[in-house]
What we know:
The chain is mainly α. It is built from 11 helices and no strands. α3 (31-47) packs parallel to α5 (67-83) and α9 runs antiparallel to α10. The chain is globular, with a radius of gyration of 18 Å.
Amino acid sequence: LTLFERNIIFNKEKISEQLNLLISKKDQLNKENKILIDLIIAEFSVFTGDFLQALNLSNLHSDAEENTIRLNAYRYKTLAEFSLGMSSAGESAGKALRIAEDSFGKDSPEILPYILMILTTTIEDSPKVATQGLRIIYENGLENTEIAAQLWVAQGEEAFKIGNYEDAEVYYNRALEIYDKAVVLTNPVMYNIALLGMAKTVLLQKEY
Length: 208
């Protein structure tokens, strides 16, 4: 699925075929593997635009006892809710971050994707969460990585939403400096968002 999401290999039809095969054998699997299949389908549904299915499957396991299951369920739940324009996406992102902190620790780089979800889905608590993310990035020498660039893009988007174009330009520029040095981009969408964001902030500040 990761290779599919990054447009590296496989296509929707081929993966759908394989998933349907797994679903046809689902009754023969144990409980753990049934849950795993549900979460795999939820992930696939997010990236193929079937957000209602992703949300329904995620809701089935959002109260699971095991942190790993709940974390993945809330991850796909957040993405589905955000894509559907649901106001609950911010709350779900917050729960995902709390589960991640409980699983990995508040200072672990492994929680950075969940910090990004907070910044993407809600303005509430964004400055506090962004500060936490930046601290983790610089303490772990990750300042020139794509995850750092994505965090700067997310901050640029938040600043742009509230009309703080000067800060937005700074954040987009930080992201672009990292992206421009990258040999390979695993998430070109974020790079395009940074480029567009920079163009919009410059235009609105009439810097031409």
